[in-house]
């Protein structure tokens, strides 16, 4: 029996226009009727997730910043900020062309880029932000460094930053995104904390995702679904693949199918 449903956001629950399908709100009522908990798990900042799900903010769980920060019913349950020096990473970013850098704090995101097009793409995901020219002046709890990569993260920024994985968790979170967090941060560890709090087992957990930063949470869910549009590596890890992609309500259709057949 499914007791917990967890969904990634970009490339998974929302379409490529970053919109939640209208049918989600109908399906959420069904989820509630079945007494199933619902949680979103994303690389986005907490403020972005809370804005997106404002009508049900007090009813669902939120895992933000790839698992660095967790809230439920507007209470902070769990956080793992970056504690090591991030200056070497930021210095390395200065040598990479066609990127924007976001230092993701608890209060807001701090954005540095000379490209207006990259800046506009970043603020689509980070509604609470401050544009800066110098990261050294930030006074905030830092959860993550995000790279918005115009050349695609897999071929441009990741090869130049992957050596930092000795001390940090460096993961591709989208075609144009790379995320760097504390080495012990991932969505799977955050989800395991919620499973403990809610007394839900892996056998009772349903997960949806599409990118490399979703793999760890798929590994602790019996019902793990990679999106039809997911990366091939993610499809290999997941137990199942959705019939429809994120632009055709793949998550919603699968939830409805599973819940109406139980």
Description:
By secondary structure, this protein is an alpha/beta fold. It has 2 domains: 4-80 and 185-261, Rossmann fold; 86-182, Hypothetical Protein, Haloacid Dehalogenase-like Hydrolase, Chain: A, domain 2, CATH 3.30.1240. It has 10 helices and 14 strands. It has helices at residues 9-13, 23-33, 46-52, 87-93, 116-125, 157-161, 187-198, 215-218, 232-237, 250-260; strands at 4-7, 37-41, 61-64, 69-72, 75-79, 99-105, 109-112, 129-131, 142-149, 168-174, 177-182, 205-209, 223-226, 240-241. It has an 8-stranded mixed β-sheet with strand order 5-4-3-2-1-12-13-14, with helices on both faces. A 6-stranded mixed β-sheet has the order 8-7-6-9-11-10. A hairpin with a 2-residue loop joins strand 4 and strand 5. The longest helix has 12 residues, at 187-198. The mean pLDDT is 96.
How far do the termini sit from each other?
8 Å
Major sheet description? 8 strands, mixed
Rg (CA only): 18 Å
Give me the count of strands: 14
Helix content: 25-40%
Label the structural class.
alpha/beta
Please tell me what the overall shape is.
Answer: globular
- Helix count equals 10
CATH class of the largest domain: Alpha Beta
What fraction of residues sit in β-strands?
Answer: 25-35%
SSE order and pairing:
Blueprint: E1 4-7, H1 9-13, H2 23-33, E2 37-41, H3 46-52, E3 61-64, E4 69-72, E5 75-79, H4 87-93, E6 99-105, E7 109-112, H5 116-125, E8 129-131, E9 142-149, H6 157-161, E10 168-174, E11 177-182, H7 187-198, E12 205-209, H8 215-218, E13 223-226, H9 232-237, E14 240-241, H10 250-260
Parallel strand pairs: 1-2, 1-12, 2-3, 7-8, 12-13, 13-14
Antiparallel strand pairs: 3-4, 4-5, 6-7, 6-9, 9-11, 10-11
Helix pairs in contact: 2-10
Organism: Capnocytophaga cynodegmi
EC number: 3.1.3.23
GO molecular function, one term: magnesium ion binding
């Amino acid at each position: 029996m499914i007791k917990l449903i967890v969904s990634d956001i970009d490339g998974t629950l929302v379409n490529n226009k970053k919109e939640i399908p209208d049918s989600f709100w109908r399906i959420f009522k069904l989820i509630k009727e079945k007494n199933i908990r619902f949680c979103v798990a994303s690389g986005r900042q907490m403020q972005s997730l809370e804005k997106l799900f404002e009508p049900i903010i007090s009813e669902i769980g939120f895992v933000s910043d790839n698992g660095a920060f967790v809230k439920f019913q507007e209470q902070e349950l769990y956080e793992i900020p970056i504690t090591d020096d991030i200056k070497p990473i930021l210095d390395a970013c200065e040598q990479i062309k066609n990127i924007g850098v976001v230092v993701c704090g608890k209060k807001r995101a701090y954005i540095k880029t000379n490209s207006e097009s990259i800046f506009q793409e970043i603020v689509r995901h980070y509604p609470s932000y401050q544009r800066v020219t110098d990261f050294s002046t930030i006074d905030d709890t830092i959860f993550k460094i995000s790279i918005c990569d115009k050349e695609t993260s897999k071929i441009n920024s990741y090869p130049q930053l992957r050596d930092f994985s000795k001390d940090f968790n460096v993961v591709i979170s989208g075609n144009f995104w790379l995320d760097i967090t504390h080495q012990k941060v991932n969505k799977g560890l955050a989800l395991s904390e919620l499973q403990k709090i809610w007394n839900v087992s892996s056998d009772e957990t349903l997960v949806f995702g599409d990118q490399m930063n979703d793999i760890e949470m798929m590994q602790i869910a019996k019902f793990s679904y990679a999106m039809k549009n997911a990366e091939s590596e993610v499809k290999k890890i997941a137990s199942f693949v959705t019939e429809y992609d994120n632009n055709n309500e793949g998550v919603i259709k699968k939830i409805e199918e599973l819940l109406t057949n139980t």
